[in-house]
């Protein structure tokens, strides 16, 4: 997983250019950790292909893998990505109608 300062927009967009990787990001946009095995990854491809897609997303800086014993989970680097590329994850999630936890309750009230 690269340092967030080394992550470029080109690398991120290259990673999500693949439809399966975009669907992975959209699934992870819910803000939860997801096990690397499970029905939520039933995209009709082999497990080895999913492993490849997870690796590409991690190397691009979009995700991190959390290891707890023998369990591997994947999560979006949401806070870091939102700070470096504001609105990017919301835009990617919106292409599938997935709302982020930050925007699920509607726009922030206006002050003034």
CATH class designation:
Mainly Alpha
Give, in order, the helices and strands: HHEHEEHH
Q: Uncertain segments of ≥5 residues (pLDDT<50)?
A: 98-112
* CATH homologous superfamily assignment: Winged helix-like DNA-binding domain superfamily/Winged helix DNA-binding domain
**Spatial separation of the terminal alpha carbons:** 42 Å
Strand order of the largest sheet: 1-3-2
Instruction: Give a quick account of the main beta sheet: strands, pairing sense, barrel closure.
Output: 3 strands, antiparallel
Q: Write down how many β-strands occur, each being a DSSP E stretch of 2 or more residues.
A: 3
Radius of gyration: 14 Å
Q: Categorize the overall geometry.
A: globular
As a percent range, the share of strand residues is 5-15%
Number of domains: 1
| SS field, number of helical segments | 5
What topology emerges from the helices and strands here?
Layout lengths: L8 H8 L2 H10 L5 E2 L11 H14 L2 E6 L2 E6 L1 H7 L3 H7 L18
Antiparallel strand pairs: 1-3, 2-3
Care to give the gist of this entry?
This protein has 112 residues and is an alpha+beta fold. Helix content is 41%, strand content 12%.
Give keywords.
globular; three-stranded antiparallel β-sheet; Arc Repressor Mutant, subunit A; 112 residues; ArsR-like_HTH
Describe the model.
This protein has 112 residues and is α+β, with helices and mostly antiparallel strands. It has five helices and three strands. It has a single domain, classed as Orthogonal Bundle (Arc Repressor Mutant, subunit A), CATH 1.10.10.10. It has a three-stranded antiparallel beta sheet with strand order 1-3-2, with helices on one face. Strand 2 (63-68) and strand 3 form a beta hairpin. The longest helix has 14 residues, at 47-60. 18% of the residues are buried. The model is unreliable at 98-112 (pLDDT under 50). Keywords: DNA-binding. This is DNA-binding transcriptional regulator, ArsR family. InterPro entries: ArsR-like_HTH, HTH_ArsR_DNA-bd_dom, WH-like_DNA-bd_sf, WH_DNA-bd_sf.
């Amino acid at each position: 997983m690269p340092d967030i300062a080394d992550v470029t927009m080109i690398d991120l967009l290259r990673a999500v250019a693949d439809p399966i990787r975009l669907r992975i990001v959209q699934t992870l946009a819910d803000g939860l950790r997801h096990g690397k095995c499970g029905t939520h990854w039933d995209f009709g491809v082999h497990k080895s292909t999913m492993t490849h897609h997870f690796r590409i997303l991690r190397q691009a800086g979009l995700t991190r893998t959390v290891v707890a014993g023998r369990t591997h989970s994947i999560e979006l680097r949401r806070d870091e990505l939102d700070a470096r590329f504001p609105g990017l994850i919301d835009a990617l999630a919106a292409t599938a109608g997935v709302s982020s936890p930050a925007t699920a309750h509607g726009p922030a009230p206006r002050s003034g």
